[in-house]
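Propose amino acids for all 137 sites.
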């Protein structure tokens, strides 16, 4: 999605992405998502594209991607979105996106299995009195 020229302050971005302000600042400090602009006073200003980048990171984090992998994926997505990128750069970027896709699929399988185990445990505990209100025993 192209920037629409609207800039958001960090609090708005944190709310939109469900990330803390501290986390958004951290991602700027480590070079993952640099704000598109700053106010005269130095406050960070973000665009819709910046928000989209933060959402990619938010989705990657719980799946065990490293900061380096996050950076490489964001860079790869930028290359794939650039009509003028060289063929070898596009090929390398596409290969890395495929790697990330595979890793994400594996993480989904693991999380589904863990969710199944958690639901099974909840059922066992419920059947054994786990749902008894506190103070009624």
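Proposal:
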């Amino acid at each position: 999605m192209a920037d629409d020229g609207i800039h958001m302050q960090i609090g708005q971005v944190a709310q939109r992405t469900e990330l803390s302000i501290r986390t958004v600042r951290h991602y700027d400090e480590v070079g993952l998502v640099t704000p598109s602009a700053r106010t005269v006073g130095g406050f960070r200003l973000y665009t819709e594209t910046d928000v989209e980048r933060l959402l990619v990171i938010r989705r990657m984090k719980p799946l065990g991607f490293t900061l380096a992998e996050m950076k490489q994926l964001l860079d790869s997505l930028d290359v794939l979105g650039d009509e003028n990128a060289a063929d070898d750069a596009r090929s390398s970027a596409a290969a890395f996106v495929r790697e990330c896709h595979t890793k994400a699929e594996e993480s989904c399988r693991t999380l589904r299995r863990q969710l199944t185990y958690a639901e099974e445990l909840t059922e066992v505990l419920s059947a054994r009195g786990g749902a008894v209100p506190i103070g009624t025993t």
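Strands lie at 8-9, 37-38, 44-46. The mean pLDDT is 91.
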